[in-house]
Amino acid sequence: MHARNIYKKRLNFKDVINDHQNLRKYVSIDLSGEAKYDFKNPEALAELTKTLLQKDFNLKVDFPITRLVPTLPLRLNYILWIEDLLKAALPKTDDVVGIDIGTGASCIYPLLAAKQGWKIIATEADKESANIARKNVENNALSHAIDIREVSEADHLLVGVLDEAKTYHFCMCNPPFFELNSCPSNRTGKRPPPKNAITGTSTELSVSGGEVEFITKIIEESKVLKDKIMIYTTMVGRKCDIGVLKNRIREAKARSVVQGEFCQGNTTRWFLAWSYTFDLVDEKIVEEKKSKQATPIIWTLDEVSVKGVVDRLKELFTSLEVNILYLVS
Ligand code: SAH
Predict the structure, then answer these.
(1) Which of 53, 67, 68 has most ligand 1 atoms within 8 Å of CB, for mutation?
(2) How far is the centre of ligand 1, averaged over its atoms, from the C-alpha of 324 (Å)?
(3) Cα–Cα distance between 312 and 304 in angstroms, integer?
């Protein structure tokens, strides 16, 4: 998690439900007395995000669970990472203007960005999502800060969408991840069941060519727009896509490219930023990975005897394919 992320500390759902009765029905208490939230239920996820947006950001946001349900810790990590990049490149700028490609019905990034005092142009290809996003902006009286632009999927992502005479500080994107008609897999070819509910429509989550092709479009357009956007950024859903995308950014002759990584509970996401304007500094914003605790080996001996212990050790070392030089019984 980003050092300034207010959700760095795990939520204690016993406290949360004391203050927010609407979440009570999604919390169960396990045998050890720990409160567990039903993250696998899209309705529970949506209600939690809405509640936290209201409580922590004074944002009243509504979105249907038939669209992608955003989780807040991840969205906040991305915004804070962009804030770090901007501060490092442009320490004195306060009139920040950015672009969110594919804002979704919740319009979550622009709403969080507006709370930072930034202005955002938000694009969306899905008509219904664009309409709901617009309502969220109006309901929070943020029309002066957020401009929703409905675009066609076939159009460019940035070229022709922006005002030609203006320059922008950054663009951001949570791209549709999955390749149409394909199932993403990890290194082992097996994918563990998700800990959170999978939400979102197929057009939100899938795109021909997967995220690599979508992000490549942004890279190609950045080659045309160059300094018009000072920092190009994107989220990347799969670690294995980072290498190929970085190569494409280098081929597009960007001046610099940096990478970020954040782990929210069970989900890790990667981020790329590149620029034709600045030498972006990799401030090691990449969070340190928690080292995995080794699982201890536990044996129970029926009777404690030296021979018994030696036999078990032999068994263990043999199973680990460790040569035994001395073992005296
Ligand atoms: N930013 C939101 C939604 C991400 S899902 C969030 O993080 O929760 C990706 C979004 O991109 C969807 O809303 C989808 O409708 C939109 N999208 C897909 N293709 C697009 C395109 N060519 N231009 C703009 N938006 C697009």
Answers:
(1) 68
(2) 59
(3) 11
The mean pLDDT value for 11-29 works out to 94
Confidence of residue 308 (pLDDT cuts 50, 70, 90): confident
pLDDT tens digits, residue range 247-256? 999 999 999 9
Which residue reads 């597009």 in tokens? 252
Q: Does any domain span residue 25?
A: no
Q: What is the mean pLDDT of residues 7-14?
A: 92
Helix (H, G, I), strand (E, B) or coil at 98: strand
User: Cβ atoms within 10 A of the Cβ of 159, count?
Assistant: 15
Q: What is the pTM of this model?
A: 0.82
**89 part of a folded domain:** yes
Question: Could you tell me if residue 74 is inside a domain?
Answer: yes
Q: How far is the CA of 131 from the centre of ligand 1 (A)?
A: 13
pLDDT digits 0-9 by tens, 79-114 = 999 999 999 999 888 899 999 999 999 999 999 999
Cα distance between residue 36 and residue 28, in whole Å: 5
Determine contact, residues 60/140, Cβ cutoff 8 Å: yes
- Range ranked top by mean pLDDT from 59-68, 196-205, 319-328: 59-68
What residues make up the domain containing 79?
A: 64-275
How many domains does the chain contain in total?
A: 1
Q: Across the chain, where does the E strand assignment appear? A: 27-29, 35-37, 97-101, 119-124, 146-150, 168-173, 178-179, 206-207, 229-236, 256-264, 267-275
Residue 11's SS3 state is: coil
Distance from the Cα of residue 38 to its chain's centroid: 20
Angstrom distance (rounded) from CA 95 to CA 285: 24
Q: Say which CATH number the domain at 103 has.
A: 3.40.50.150
Assess if residue 328 is contained within a domain.
Answer: no
| Position in ligand 1 atom list of the atom nearest CA 70 | 8
